[in-house]
Write a structure and sequence with these properties.
The chain is mostly helical. The chain is built from one helix and no strands. The longest helix is centred in the middle third of the chain and has 36 residues. The radius of gyration is 16 Å and the shape is rod-shaped. InterPro entries: DUF2770. Pfam families: DUF2770.
């Protein structure tokens, strides 16, 4: 069981930058949408 958790944690660490980049893109699109349509 701990081996599964360990592999999941490693996977999260490896892909953290991708997740952050997606989050930033989503935030920028959201800010642009609010600024453009209000």
């Amino acid at each position: 069981m701990s081996r599964i958790i360990e592999s999941v944690m490693n996977n999260i660490r490896e892909h953290m930058m991708i997740y952050i980049a997606i989050w930033i893109i989503v935030l920028l699109l959201d800010i642009y949408y609010v600024w453009f349509y209000e």
